[in-house]
């Protein structure tokens, strides 16, 4: 087997750390980890995969705010970044073809795609 096995928790940790490193570089306060928000994100990710769509709102009309409410989270100021990529498969990006075969490489690819998305604010 080429590379390492996918460890979703490890990828999430790498992404969180990388986001905070980037925020620090920009002089913006870092974000605290939240298991509750992670649960919402994982649920939405699973729905994206199962229902085969890529959007902030589900085909049934569920919004990010609906998801927060469903999980009992009261959040007045929020945002959401989504990305679609693959592990151990060739991925075409604006920077050319990529192949993520480690958890850290996948996390870095996710962050790069987020940072290159229009309208992103740290």
From TrEMBL:
SUPFAM superfamilies, alphabetized: PR-1-like
CDD domains per UniProt: CAP_bacterial
InterPro entries: CAP_dom (IPR014044), CAP_sf (IPR035940)
Residue stretches making up the SCP domain: 17-119
Coiled coil spans: none
Name the UniProt record assigns to this protein: CAP domain-containing protein
Organism: Halogeometricum salsisoli
């Amino acid at each position: 087997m080429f590379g390492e096995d996918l460890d979703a928790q490890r990828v999430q940790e790498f992404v969180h750390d990388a986001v905070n490193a980037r925020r620090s570089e920009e002089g913006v306060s870092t974000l605290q980890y939240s298991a509750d928000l992670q649960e919402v994100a994982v649920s939405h990710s699973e729905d994206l995969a199962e229902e085969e769509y890529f959007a902030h709102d589900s085909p049934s009309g569920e919004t990010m705010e609906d998801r927060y409410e469903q999980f009992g989270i009261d959040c007045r100021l929020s945002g959401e970044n989504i990305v679609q990529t693959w592990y151990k498969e060739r991925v075409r990006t604006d920077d050319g073809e990529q192949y993520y075969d480690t958890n850290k490489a996948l996390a870095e690819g996710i962050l790069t795609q987020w940072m290159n998305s229009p309208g992103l604010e740290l």
